[in-house]
From TrEMBL, chains A, B:
Alphabetized HAMAP family for the sequence: GGGP_HepGP_synthase
Family note: Belongs to the GGGP/HepGP synthase family. Group I subfamily.
Annotated residues for binding of Mg(2+): 15, 41
Pathway: Membrane lipid metabolism; glycerophospholipid metabolism
Record-given protein name: Heptaprenylglyceryl phosphate synthase
Superkingdom of origin: Bacteria
Needed cofactors: Mg(2+)
Organism placement in taxonomy: Bacteria, Bacillati, Bacillota, Bacilli, Bacillales
UniProt binding sites for sn-glycerol 1-phosphate: 13, 160-165, 190, 210-211
EC numbers, comma separated: 2.5.1.n9
Reported function: Prenyltransferase that catalyzes in vivo the transfer of the heptaprenyl moiety of heptaprenyl pyrophosphate (HepPP; 35 carbon atoms) to the C3 hydroxyl of sn-glycerol-1-phosphate (G1P), producing heptaprenylglyceryl phosphate (HepGP). This reaction is an ether-bond-formation step in the biosynthesis of archaea-type G1P-based membrane lipids found in Bacillales.
Reactions that this protein is recorded to catalyse: sn-glycerol 1-phosphate + all-trans-heptaprenyl diphosphate = 3-heptaprenyl-sn-glycero-1-phosphate + diphosphate
Gene Ontology MF term list: transferase activity
Length: 230, 230
C-alpha cells in the first residue's frame, strides 16, 4: 500500500477548512494528479475532514490524510501521512506528539498505512513554522544535513521540503534531493503555474500544489500537465 | 556489516575514561561476549578512545564505538552506534546534534557503518539522563510508545532501554520488546551477575554489561555464560 507513493509526481493538497464547489472538486480529482492529500495547519476538524473525504471518494484517485490533529483523524483514507518536523528545538514536533498519540491510540493504529514524513519547514511566515518555532534561517548545507538525518538515520520514506505560502529556493531543494538515497523528496510551497511546477518538479520527486487551487483553478490545473509532460 | 548486530546477545561496554589492565582486557575479550562497545557519557577523548581501540584490536571480536562526542570519533571501528535520545524535550538529543555533525562532516561519514539507536533513558540519576534532561518518570505504556516511535516511525534498527547504573523494571522492558516488530531491543543497566544477566536476557534481544567490569571481573564474566547457555 505504502509503495504507491513512489509513483506520485503530483499531489493536490486540499484544506478541509476552505470551501470548494463540487465542480471545482471534480476538475481537481479528474485533473490527472496522482493523489489528493487532505490536511492543513489550522481549523481542521473531524467533521470538515470526513465531509471532504466523502466528496473526494466519488473519484478514483488515492486520497491520503496528513495528520496534524488527532481529533481530526478519520478512518477510510488510503494512507496517513505523519509529519515529523526536523528543524525545531522542540522534540514534541519530532517525536513527542507521536509518542503521546501512540500511547493513547496505539491499539487501533493501522501501522501498515502510516507514512512518516521528515519535514523541513523553511518559510518563517507560514503557520507551521510559527507553530513549531522552526529554525528556518538555514544554509543549503544545513537543509541537506536535515534531509540526511531523515533519510539515513531515521530511514523515513519521505523528506518534505516545505515553503508553504512562498516559492522556495530551488538550489536548496536540489542539493537536498541529491544528498538522499532512499527517501522520496516532496516539495511544497508557492507552486502557482506551469513554470513553477516544472521548476519544482525538476529538483524533487513529487510536488504538492495547494493554495493556488483556491485562487486560480485554471493555473492550478496547469501544474498537472506541466509535471506529467516531463 | 550492520547485519552482524542481529546475532549479538551480549556486549561488553568499555569506558575509555576508566583504567583496565591488559590481563582484565584479555579476559573480557576472550570471554565469549559477542562484541565490545567503546563509549561513555563523560571524559571521552580521541586519545583514550584510540588507545582502548588499539588494545581491543589484538582480539578477534567486533569492536564498535558508541558516539557521544564528535571530537572522540576514531576511524577503524567495525560500526558506529549513534544514540538518538527519544524521551527528552530537547530536539538536539534526537536529531539536532546529528544534523550539525552531518553538516560539518557529512562528506567523510561512512554511512554504511552507522547504526542509529533509539535511546529510552530511564534512570534519573544517570549522567546521560541529567545531560539530556530525559523524562524518566514514565509508565510502561509510555516507554512502549517511545519504542514504537523508534521502531515503526523512525525505522531504527535498535531500541536501547537504558537504566545505566541501576537494574531496571523488567516488566517495562518486556512490554517494549513485545510491541516492536523490526528493531532489536538492547537492554543496559545494573547487570551485575548471572541472575540479572539471565533476567535481562529473557526480556531483550541483547544485553549490555558495563560497570560491573570495573568492580568485579568474575561476576562480569559470569554474565556471558548466563546468556550463552540460554
Amino acid at each position: 500500500m505504502k509503495e504507491m507513493i513512489k509513483d506520485w509526481k503530483h499531489i493536490f493538497k486540499l484544506d478541509p477548512d476552505r470551501q470548494m464547489t463540487d465542480d471545482t472538486l471534480e476538475a481537481v480529482c479528474l485533473s490527472g494528479s496522482d493523489a489528493i492529500m487532505i490536511g492543513g495547519s489550522s481549523g481542521i476538524t473531524y467533521e470538515n475532514t470526513v465531509d471532504l473525504l466523502s466528496r473526494v471518494r466519488r473519484y478514483e484517485l488515492p486520497c491520503v490524510q496528513e495528520v496534524s490533529d488527532l481529533t481530526a483523524v478519520v478512518p477510510g483514507f488510503d494512507l496517513y501521512m505523519i509529519p515529523m518536523v526536523l528543524n525545531t528545538d522542540h522534540s514534541r514536533w519530532i517525536t513527542g506528539l507521536h509518542q503521546a498519540a501512540i500511547e493513547e491510540y496505539g491499539y487501533m493504529i493501522p501501522w501498515e498505512l502510516l507514512v512518516p514524513e521528515g519535514y523541513i519547514v523553511l518559510n518563517p511566515d507560514s503557520t507551521v513554522a510559527k507553530l513549531t518555532e522552526a529554525n528556518t534561517d538555514l544554509e543549503e548545507s544545513s537543509v541537506t544535513a536535515y534531509a540526511q538525518v531523515a533519510d539515513k538515520l531515521m530511514n523515513l520514506p519521505i523528506v518534505y521540503v516545505e515553503y508553504s505560502g512562498a516559492f522556495g529556493d530551488m538550489a536548496i531543494v536540489k542539493e537536498a534531493r541529491q544528498a538522499i538515497s532512499n527517501a522520496q523528496l516532496f516539495y511544497g510551497g508557492g507552486i502557482c503555474d506551469e513554470v513553477t511546477a516544472r521548476e519544482a518538479a525538476g529538483v524533487s520527486d513529487t510536488i504538492i500544489v495547494g493554495n493556488i487551487l483556491y485562487r486560480d483553478l485554471k493555473a492550478a490545473l496547469s501544474t498537472v500537465s506541466a509535471v506529467k509532460s516531463e
